[in-house]
Structure formats: structure tokens, C-alpha cells
Design brief:
By secondary structure, the protein is mainly α. Helix content is 66%, strand content 1%. It is elongated, with a radius of gyration of 35 Å.
Length: 302
């Protein structure tokens, strides 16, 4: 017995329940295979329950025909909720499918596009556009199970498991914006000639020859300045993410003169205080959208 209903209504629903699936198959006889028929059955059951509540036996109308109309309406409403394609496109799609089936039966093979267009009385261009529109109108739920014909393994795969996660996490986004801001500050604080080379090459799109002419030096000297600037930037940026002990540690090899260490420390401190944390995280505002992209090129080089 269906819970929450009076015995007479419950019995009416239980006796007529097989009608739901029968109506569903009638309604979806020309639907694509991907349509979730069980979801439509659930919608049809709700239509049946509503019909049972509204049914008046005194009017002399048998319940099954009355319920069938309610069930059909509920199923169609459920389909329309997930289908944004116009009815004209659906009619054209049904005509296309019926024509293709008939040709396949007559020819005993899959018809070519030319044969299909000829049978429909349309051009190949119109046929291609119709097929494209029909493809765009297909709605697939992410919980739909995909046959393992397309994927390795014995179990079914749901569509949501096949969608790549290309989104950027909040943490990654904040780190990228902070690094880009640090990089811009580090470039602004470089010695003059090093700054001109890095700014011109990575942010202004200038060539080494153009920079050599501006600075009145050779192209090889420009290359040397760029290499020196990379090392200065690398040390300055590394210091922003290193703890105190790591920042003070010296790499193995020849000892670094105290004067050089003081210069590196002053440069790292200047980067740390050149901008506030809030302004660094605001570095990806729309008007500065190109800033991250430009900084990304430089970051890869450094």
C-alpha cells in the first residue's frame, strides 16, 4: 500500500502503476538513446498520483484513460525542463532520423550525406547545419553512465568523471597573483640597465637589437645584462618565500663577499616592502589582466 494515501486512492495508484512505463515508452519512442527514461518514469508516477487525487469516479470516465493523459503531460513537462531546442528543430530531427532509417532499410547500408540530403530535398550545407544544431541541442547529465567501450576498465564511467578539471583553485590563484606582483616589483627595483633590458624584452616586446641601440651597447652585452638580471631576480624572489635561516644560508662554493650579501639583502628587503599585501593580491584586476600574462613569461625564464 502507498503510504500517506487513503486506501482507495492507494489501490487505484498501485493497480495503474504499470501504465506509467507504457506511456513513457510511447512518448519517448523517437527520443535519443541518452534520454534518462527512469527519470521520466518518476515524473510519470507523480502525474499518476496527481491523477488519482483529482479523479472523480462519479463522472463516469474510466481511470486508466484519464490517468494516461496526466502521466503523458507530466512526462512531457519533465522533458521540456531540460530541453531548450525549439519544436521546429525537434520536428526536423525526427524527420531526419526517420528518413535515415528508411534509406538504411532500402539500401541495406548507412546512407551517405548526399543521399540523405537528396531524400530530404535539402542541400548538403543545410543538412550539415541541421545536424550541427541537433548535436548542440543534446543534453547529457553528468551522472549518465558511459559504456566502457570508450574507456578502459570493466566498470561504467560517469560523464562527470570524464570532464577535465581545468579550474584554478583559490589558493593557486592567490599564489599566482602574489608572485606576479612580486615579480613586477622586483623588475622595478633592478639596477637601471638591467631594468631596461628586462622591461623592454619581456613587457614591451622589444628585440635585443633595439635595446642595444637604446643603451648604446652591443647585442651580446644585452644578453649578458639579461642573464645577470635573471640571477638578481631569482635571488630576490626566492628570499620572499624563504624563512630566516634559509635566506641567510650561503650556497656551497666560494664565499660571497659581505658587500654582495648586503646588496642582496637590501634588494630582497626592498621587494618585500615595495607593495602592500593587499595591492599584490589586487594585481589581477581587469585593467591589469595583461600583467599576469607578461609576468608569466618572465617567471618561466627566471
Amino acid at each position: 500500500m502507498t503510504h500517506g494515501l487513503d486506501p482507495q486512492t492507494s489501490e487505484l495508484i498501485e493497480q495503474t502503476l504499470p501504465l506509467v512505463r507504457h506511456v513513457m515508452y510511447q512518448v519517448t519512442s523517437h527520443f535519443p538513446r541518452h534520454v534518462d527514461k527512469e527519470e521520466l518514469v518518476r515524473a510519470g508516477v507523480l502525474g499518476l498520483v496527481e491523477a488519482a487525487h483529482r479523479f472523480d469516479a462519479e463522472k463516469g470516465v474510466p481511470f486508466p484513460p484519464y490517468a494516461a493523459q496526466r502521466i503523458r503531460g507530466a512526462i512531457i513537462d519533465a522533458v521540456r525542463k531540460v530541453d531548450w531546442a525549439p519544436r521546429s528543430l525537434r520536428r526536423a530531427g525526427r524527420n531526419l532520423e526517420a528518413t535515415a532509417d528508411k534509406l538504411a532499410n532500402d539500401l541495406r547500408r548507412t546512407p551517405t550525406a548526399t543521399e540523405l540530403a537528396g531524400a530530404l530535398g535539402i542541400s548538403l550545407t543545410v543538412l550539415a547545419e541541421l545536424q550541427h544544431q541537433l548535436l548542440q541541442s543534446v543534453v547529457l547529465g553528468l551522472d549518465m553512465a558511459v559504456s566502457d567501450t570508450f574507456f578502459d576498465g570493466d566498470d561504467d564511467v560517469h560523464l562527470e568523471g570524464t570532464v577535465p578539471d581545468d579550474g584554478v583553485s583559490v589558493d593557486d590563484d592567490l599564489c599566482d597573483r602574489e608572485m606576479a606582483a612580486y615579480l613586477h616589483d622586483a623588475v622595478a627595483l633592478l639596477p637601471d640597465r638591467h631594468r631596461v633590458v628586462i622591461q623592454g624584452y619581456f613587457f614591451d616586446g622589444r628585440t635585443s637589437a633595439e635595446l642595444a641601440d637604446e643603451l648604446e651597447i652591443t647585442v651580446s652585452r644585452v644578453s649578458q645584462l639579461r642573464t645577470e638580471a635573471f640571477e638578481i631576480l631569482r635571488q630576490g624572489l626566492t628570499a620572499q618565500y624563504a624563512d630566516g635561516e634559509a635566506a641567510d644560508a650561503q650556497p656551497a662554493g666560494e664565499p660571497v663577499p659581505a658587500k654582495v650579501l648586503r646588496r642582496r639583502g637590501a634588494y630582497a628587503a626592498a621587494i618585500a616592502t615595495h607593495s602592500t599585501w593587499r595591492s599584490r593580491l589586487d594585481a589581477a584586476q581587469p585593467k591589469q589582466a595583461g600583467r599576469l600574462q607578461q609576468a608569466g613569461r618572465l617567471q618561466q625564464a627566471v
